[in-house]
Write a structure and sequence with these properties.
With 190 residues, the protein is of the alpha+beta class. It has 6 helices and 8 strands.
Length: 190
């Protein structure tokens, strides 16, 4: 009788590693992100070494939720999908909050310089749309800006244009913040 118990115990102990046993699938899943991403630029970069040329890919990606959150990131890898994945992760870590007026436009004019690239943004009336091109448009749309006028001057480097746009959105001051700085009420500013 003792031998039967031992056999049963041995079977139960081996059950831990049995493939038929269901896994713990009741763990909470990661919350699905509402962030959209858009690839701004993919470059193939070359490093010349003694043995020849080594190719890698550099990707620039902007992510946003179209509700006032936007971020920019870059990534490098030997394969293009890996570079895009790294850039998306970097962009998700560098999100900024954008203050929008009536959830559609920016609060004031701004001119920002990044490298040799200058980007100018102006608020626009309702129904104007996003009057911008290239990476400036991608950043503004993913930030949730619906009406804005823009002009890019100087160098047309895509990453610098995207960074300048992001810095311009970061520097926007809401009317309540300006009123606080001036010790007035929001109604007094208008």
């Amino acid at each position: 009788m003792n031998e039967d118990k031992k056999k049963v115990e041995v079977k139960e102990n081996n059950r831990k590693f049995d493939k038929k046993r269901p896994r713990n699938n009741n763990r909470p899943n990661k919350p699905k992100s509402d962030l959209e991403d858009k690839v701004i630029e993919i470059k193939r970069v070359t490093k010349v070494v003694k043995g020849g040329r080594q190719f890698r890919f550099a990707a620039t990606v902007v992510v946003g939720n179209r509700k006032g959150m936007v971020g920019l990131g870059t990534g490098k890898a030997k394969e293009m999908p890996d570079a895009v994945k790294k850039a998306t992760q970097a962009a998700s870590k560098n999100l900024i909050k954008v203050n929008l007026i009536d959830n559609r436009t920016i609060s004031h004019d701004i001119l920002v310089k990044e490298g040799a690239c200058k980007v100018m943004l102006k608020p626009a009336k309702e129904g104007t749309g996003v009057k911008a091109g290239g990476p400036v448009r991608d950043v503004l749309e993913l930030a949730g800006v619906k009406d804005v006028l823009s002009k890019s001057q100087g160098s047309s480097t895509k990453i610098n244009a995207a960074r300048a746009t992001l810095n311009a959105l970061k520097m926007q001051k809401s009317p309540s913040h300006v009123a606080y700085l001036r010790d007035k009420k929001v109604e007094e500013l208008r």
